[in-house]
Each structure stands twice: as C-alpha cells, then as structure tokens.
Queue: 4 jobs
Job 1
Amino acid sequence: MTETDAHESDRWVEFFVRRGYPRARRLASGMEGTVYRLRDGTVAKVWAGRAPEDFDLTRRLYADIAGHPLPFGTPRILDAEEHDGVLVSYERELGGRPLRSEGEQPAPDLPRRETDALLTVLRALASVPGSEAMRRLVIQGDDRPLWQGHSRFSDALAALVERAAGRNLDALAAQVPGLAGVVSRTASSLRALPDRPESVIHGDLVPPNLHVDEAGHPVAVLDFGFCTTVGDPAFEAAVTAAVWDMYGPDADRHTAELTRLFARELGHAEEVLALYRTAYALITYDLFGMGPHDGHFRWCAALLR
C-alpha cells in the first residue's frame, strides 16, 4: 500500500461520512484497492476489480490465516457491502508502520532488523496449513484457480508458467532471446521437483506490506491476494528475496544476499529458489504493463535473460 494525500472531497470519504463515520479519511492505495480509516480499530477497503459475488472466498481465506496462531496480525473481514457495483469491505485495522515506505530506497547493506523481520514472517507463514479456500484462489492475470486439475504445487505452477507465457508471448520474446526454451526448461524443472511441504503463500512480501513496531518486530502482514495460494514455502522465500528491492541501485546484491540467507536459515536449496524466481517472472511479467516502458516488465525480462 502507498500513503496518499488525497483531499477530503474524495467521494468515498463522503460515502463513509454518510454511513456514520464523520472522521473517515483516505489512508492508502494498493493493487487491490483503496483503504480508508473510519475510526480507531476499523478501516474500509474499496476494492478495485473485485466482483462482490466471489468475495466469500477472500473472507474464508482471511479467516483461515487469522485462525492460526501467528506472532503478527493479518486481515480479518468484519462486514462487506456493495455500492454502485463496487465491493466495500470493513476490516479490523492492523497496527505498526510499514517497514519501508513505497519508493524509499533501502540501505546499501540491509539492516539486521529487516532481515530478522523477514525471517520471522517467512517462518510463521510456513506454519499456516493449506486450506480449501487457498486452493481455489486465482493468481492475478490467470483465468482459473491455480490448483484446478492438479494435486501438486509444482505441477500447478508449471502449467501456469506455460499459460502465462502464452498470454503475450510476442512482447516477451522480443526482449528475451530463446524464450521458448526458457519456458520449456522452467516448466520441466518444476514438474521434476519432488513433493514439497505446503503452506499459505502470501506472494507479495514487499516492505509496505510488512508492518513493524518501534523495535522492528513484525506486527502485521497486509495485502494477501495478488499471488496468494497454498504451496512450497521455498516459493515464498524466492519471491521475497527477489521483490524486496527490485529497482534500487543494490537490488541484485540484495537479492543474492537474501537468497543466501533464506537458504541457510530456512533450509531451501539455492537452485530451487532460482527456479522459483524464474517462474515468478514468467507468471507476472505482463501484470502491470507490457514493453520496456514498464518497470516490472523490464525487471522480469532482465531476469529471464
């Protein structure tokens, strides 16, 4: 989520004032929608592109995660309604502050408080068992639940890699020589993986989605949904190492540092982490824009090269 200075003429602020929340104000915006603080302890999310009729799955996902003992808070839906075809959910407010704000550059040497917080979150999420709701989720950009027709995460991910690469194959191939071979090798390597442990995967552990207290301890993890599913905790670790600093001047060094740390402390093989990073690039390359003008597309293409 990113903080915003939107003025009080925001139509949703006026909507919440009419709903009995005179102190409502716009708080932050992200991929899923815009969040408004209504009063102490309660926020509302105005969802972007989420159909009201399929929201029960999100409610169940949040409940499955929040029902497991964790050392930090996670979202919980209190109520939901539809207004002018837009889904509005009411949720408990999670505390803390973002570990790093959107656009804030990390230090050249990642501080211990950041790496300790990441290890705490990764270990905790790896303890949350998979559920039926998690297996029914659709990864953003796809047209079906990830697990549909599959009984193993690696097989489901391989099939998604093949579907996603075909969505805008020409645009990606123009930037990645030998793309067909990259896709084929990645899918084959995924299908060759042995059975792995399964737990919830957040899929977007970027600094604004991890809130900490003054001492740097994680107190909340936000914004499940972009790439949330159930699967191998190594996938979560691989993606986190890659996206924690995607565009900074030390991004490559930070990814390598976190990859080594997660391999050592969490027991993941570095070659498996590298494979999952490649898969992540292939399933998300076109979700924000296409072509070299888009930063995420450029990042994915560079990784695949």
Job 2
Amino acid sequence: MFLGEGVADWEATFHTAPTDSVADGVARYRDAVERANEVRVRCMDLGAPVPRPRPERPAPSVRWALTHMIEETGRHVGHADILRELIDGSTGC
C-alpha cells in the first residue's frame, strides 16, 4: 500500500492474510521490485534526498537507500537460505 509516490505504508507490508500463498508473496515482492525500479530509473542524482512522509526529518540520499535495499535483500536471501538448509539439510553449492 502506497501513501504517495515512492512512499510505502511499511507497517502494511509486513502483514499477510491467512489465505495468502507463497505465490501471493512472490507476486507482491516482484511488484514491489518493479515499482522500486520505476522510481530508481527516474533518480539521476544519487546524492539527492529520497521522498519522506515526514518532511521535518532529514532524508537519506538515493545512494544510501539503494545501498540499504541491496544490503536488506542480501540479508533476507541469507535468512531464506538458512531456512532451506534446515529443511533439506544440504549446504554449500
């Protein structure tokens, strides 16, 4: 759920319905990636501030936001890999 261009209702992104399937989650993730990419391609200045729902607080730069997104994605992929290892017992490549 988006409050405005590029500003997400973060609390809503962490809740799923009991009837949601894995495919639903993957579809929402892919949609979020597509929306983030649409915003990203319009950002020509990596030093520019990102949009904030509360303009009275300082905004991080686009560079910081992109780096944070890469870091968070890597962290969650690592968590998913740990879960997979616990399920199937295989490790490594």
Job 3
Amino acid sequence: MRGVVWFVLIGCVAILVYLIFRKRLGFGWLAVFGAHMALAAIALYVINYSGWITQIYIPINPVTMGTVTVLGLPGIVLLVGLKIMLFGQAI
C-alpha cells in the first residue's frame, strides 16, 4: 500500500511540473499563492481573536487555510456556518 501512495505522489508531482513548464507559468504563481495563503491566515486570526464573532473558534490548519485561500471571504462564511451547524454553537 505504501508503494502505491508513493507512486501516486510522484506521478502527481511529475504532471504538475509538466503543466507548469508547458504553460510557461514560471514561478510567479507561487508568489500569488503565498500571498493568498498569508492573507487567509491573517483573516482567520482576526476572526478568532478580534471578538467580532464570539464563542466561535476556527482552527488555523491546512484544511481551513486552504478553504479560505481558494474561496476567499465566502470560505470564511462557509467555515463559520459549518461550525454553527455541526457543533450547535450560536452566535
């Protein structure tokens, strides 16, 4: 099973590298992605510790940061809504 996981990982990295060089994206997209990731972390930190939304804590981990990085502000709303619906916390 471990060999299959490594095979899939290596295959995905090879395809990603191929697409980056084929489309001539360069490495500028990494700077944009890094900036979005930093802004996502800052937004989650502000939501957690500012007191705007009391009694709700959204952990800062790769899943939540990825959600906010890809979706932006609707991602934060999605996470807050999921937290309220799944854990029954009222605002």
Job 4
Amino acid sequence: MQSPLPEHAAVWFEIPVTDFSRAKSFYGVVTGNALTDEEGAPNPMANFAKAHDRSVAGHVYPGKPAPRGTGITIHLVVPDLDAALSRVWDNGGEVASPVLSLPDGRFAYCLDPDGNSFGLFTR
C-alpha cells in the first residue's frame, strides 16, 4: 500500500550562520521578510515570517555552515528578483549565477556572507 503524498515536499528549513545578528539583517534586507527571534526555543533562532501556520518556512541559527557553496540550496521567494539580487551584493553576499527562467518564474543562485548557498525566486 502506497502512502499518500505529503502536501509539501519540505516542511521546514534551517540555515546555520556564524554571525547571528548579521544573518538576520542580511536575509531580512535581501528578502524583504524581517526575521523574528523565537522566544523560548532551545537554541537562538530567528524565523522568516510566513502567511499562515501551514506555510513552509524556516529560520537562521548560530551553527556551522557547510564549506562555501557545498551545502543544500533553499530557494526564498522575493517580490522583485532584480532588486533582491542587488541587495545581496550590497549586504556582503554574492550572486553566483545569471537569472534563470522557468515556466513558473525566475531565479538565481546566491551565497550568503557565510558561503551558504541559497536561491532567490519570483513568479
């Protein structure tokens, strides 16, 4: 008997960072989605805002990133891809690819100040 497919292939993401304050600022400014400190969590973490309780989201936390550009890549939604890519450079990150087009939207690969790979996506 086959299990039913999950509503979402991913349910949560975590981005390890070496400088917690810098990461909260970087991701908040780049995505336009201010991160909020989680009260009462077992470890420091700052959550990306989400539309509702069933939305997929995640957080940054003090941890050890994978070596530069070698970890998994999470894609973050932004309203204006070109403006967000400019903010990556302006805030100590790096745009690592040209803008790529898909049937559902456009995206580019980036690196945060710790070398974590992430993508920015817009419809």
